[in-house]
Design a protein that fits this description.
The chain has 144 residues and is mainly α. 84% of the residues lie in helices and 0% in strands.
Length: 144
């Protein structure tokens, strides 16, 4: 299949959408990891307890996910092959982070499936889409 101008235009703007999404993730990580848990406990004591109990490896997974995914989108924009590896690392880190959230806490019992899982599922799907798109670019010979 030949690339049409519209296909090439999509190749240019889609990485920027992934970048915007990942920058929101970076901001969320910074805000959540530096949150004053005493202040949070006044409005959301359950969330404050979850974050206080979250092991260091889960925080590292969270930070690693947003960092690797953001760098992966930048690599896509720069047409670098490492975009695939960075996007894969981001997806694995997301799965580790949410693995802890759902298997290591009582969040599903307390909040219910829809409230607890809807946004994490969205994050996993977008991370997988980023990896899939990076692989597509690689397979099309667009990454060097």
């Amino acid at each position: 299949m030949h690339s049409t101008p519209s296909n090439r235009a999509g190749e240019r703007w889609l990485p920027y959408l992934f970048l915007a999404w990942n920058l929101v993730g970076c901001a969320a990580f910074i805000m959540q990891s530096s949150q004053d848990l005493g202040v949070l406990a006044r409005t959301d004591p359950y969330q404050a307890r979850l974050w206080a109990a979250m092991p260091l490896w889960a925080w590292i997974s969270y930070g690693g996910a947003v960092l690797a995914s953001t760098l992966g989108t930048l690599a896509m924009i720069l047409r670098r092959r490492i975009a695939v590896l960075l996007s894969l690392v981001g997806l694995v880190a997301v799965l580790l982070q949410f693995g802890y959230t759902f298997l290591g806490t009582d969040v599903l019992q307390v909040l219910g499936f829809v409230a607890a899982a809807a946004f994490p599922i969205t994050i996993v799907l977008l991370s997988a889409a980023q990896l899939g798109y990076a692989r597509l670019l690689q397979n099309r010979g667009r990454l060097r």
